[in-house]
Design brief:
- About 35% of the residues lie in helices and about 20% in strands.
- The chain is of the alpha/beta class.
- It has 3 domains: about 130 residues, 3-Layer(aba) Sandwich (Rossmann fold); about 220 residues, Dihydrodipicolinate Reductase, domain 2; about 80 residues, no CATH class.
- The strands form 2 sheets. Strands 14-13-12-11-7-10-9-8-15 form a 9-stranded mixed sheet. Strands 3-2-1-4-5-6 form a 6-stranded parallel sheet, sandwiched between helices.
- Helix 5 links the parallel strand 5 and strand 6.
- It is globular.
């Protein structure tokens, strides 16, 4: 029998409100939010209303909330990347078990510091690597660890970020600039690096190449204004034209199964640009807010493509490609082993794994159900639910989490190493990189 947990939320934005909040509302016998800290009055009030949180448990800052002492069992830290460290450290010291949004922190030293704090305090620090809880990826792990593929020789993994998601999150949006967020290889691909580590073990050395090629001022169409809504002459020809995405929902309708059956879709990414998701409010948001900017007129500096080449401790070689120019959102993979080849496709509207056996020539195809409504546009929905269920079980001591904070650190180490390798044109020895990271944070 699980003990119902009480929780506090620090940061009531997209992830806190749309990913973790709904699970608590659907499963009050497992977890209930009893306090919230959020500087934005509208978001704070919205979350408090949804979870029936009284005024005395609504706080503007995380400092005010944690100053009350330990008022719940667990804390969810869902602030922006650069605001992860201090509230997480304070929550751990106060005795909370913590679920922290990924990435852990924007610098390597801070990531190591968080892991060391969790180990020192003896508290659970769960990082939101939600893909481990998605059936597609847990099936991949079962296949790899079963030995059906034989010894794994080469691994190809692609993170295909759609052109419109790239524009939304990494050109116009909150993760567009590494000076205010984190490098894209960390913010977008720590999921992928975690899956590779989970399936195939640690990396021995790596190199990386990539840059920002397209979303630059010199690539703007002639006469393009600062905003799409200011009379852009290229409106009819531009895939990134903001009203096309946020008012007409064209990319979503083309790539999301069943969206036509949702007459008034208000989920991600619409919910990000305006709390009021009415058509008129969205128009105003595009006229005044960051999501109406021309994709060639933003202050973005993160890459729009990057490749990470790895040699694993097992001897296998890995090529991981991330780019922001895909026709639709998803991941693809190919694993070549001595006994079989595995092909996989993980898209919003298509998810399958094929195993091609070398001896018999037979092909086994495993298909997974896809979202049949407008829910779960990020592709995280089942993973979010699985993560929450696992976190509740882990805090109750019923079952260990799929990943420890120390395990979660490995994907961040690889991401930071890839960034260093890309910027300096070098090959990184991961054993030395790990030693340096621990020493720097000591």
């Amino acid at each position: 029998m699980l003990k119902p947990l009480t929780a506090v939320l620090i940061g009531a934005g997209n992830r806190g409100y749309e990913a973790y909040g709904p699970y608590a509302l659907a499963h009050p016998e497992q977890i209930r939010f009893v306090a919230v800290a959020e500087p934005h009055e509208g978001r704070r009030a919205r979350f408090a209303r949804a979870h029936d949180i009284p005024p005395e448990r609504q706080f503007i800052t995380w400092e005010d909330l944690l100053a009350k002492g330990k008022i719940a069992d667990v804390a969810f830290i869902c602030t922006m990347d650069r605001l992860h460290v201090e509230p997480t450290l304070a929550a751990l010291e106060a005795g909370y078990d913590v679920l922290l949004e990924k990435p852990m922190a924007p610098t390597l030293a801070e990531c190591v510091r968080l892991v060391q704090a969790a180990e020192r305090t003896g508290r659970l620090l769960q990082i939101a690597h939600v893909l481990r809880y998605v059936p597609f990826f847990s099936t991949l792990r079962d296949i790899v660890t079963s030995g059906r593929l034989g010894d794994i020789i080469t691994i190809e993994h692609r993170e295909n970020v759609s052109y419109w998601h790239m524009a939304h999150s990494f050109v116009r949006g909150l993760w567009r600039n590494s000076d205010i967020a984190s490098p894209m290889i960390l913010t977008k691909c720590c999921h992928d690096l975690d899956i590779l580590f989970w399936l195939f073990g640690p990396c021995r050395r790596l190199s990386s190449f990539g840059s920002l090629i397209h979303y630059r001022a010199e690539n703007a169409p002639p006469g393009a204004p600062e905003r799409c809504t200011d009379g852009c002459p290229a409106a009819d020809e531009c895939p990134w034209y903001a009203p096309r995405l946020y008012l007409d929902l064209v990319p979503l309708r083309l790539t999301m199964s069943g969206l036509e059956a949702v007459p008034d879709y208000q989920g991600w990414p619409i919910s990000v640009i305006s709390e009021d998701t009415s058509l008129e409010a969205r128009r105003r948001a595009l006229e005044t807010g960051p999501y109406g900017r021309c994709v060639y007129r933003c202050d973005n500096n993160v890459v729009d493509h990057q490749v990470v080449n790895m040699e694993l401790e097992s001897g296998a070689s890995v090529s991981m490609i991330m780019h922001g120019h895909s026709h639709k959102e998803g991941r693809t993979m190919r694993y070549d082993g001595t006994r079989a080849t595995l092909l996989g496709r993980y898209y919003l509207d298509e998810q399958w794994i094929e195993i091609h056996d070398h001896l018999t020539g037979k092909v086994e195809r495993i298909e997974f159900p896809v979202t049949s409504s407008g829910a779960g546009a990020t592709g995280h929905a089942s993973g979010d639910q699985g993560l929450m269920a696992a976190f509740v079980r882990a805090v109750n001591g019923v079952a260990p989490a799929l990943t420890t904070a120390r395990d979660a650190l490995e994907s961040h180490l690889m991401a930071f190493a890839a960034q260093e390798a890309r910027l300096n044109g070098i090959v990184i020895d991961m054993r030395e990189f790990r030693r340096r990271a621990e020493a720097t944070s000591a």
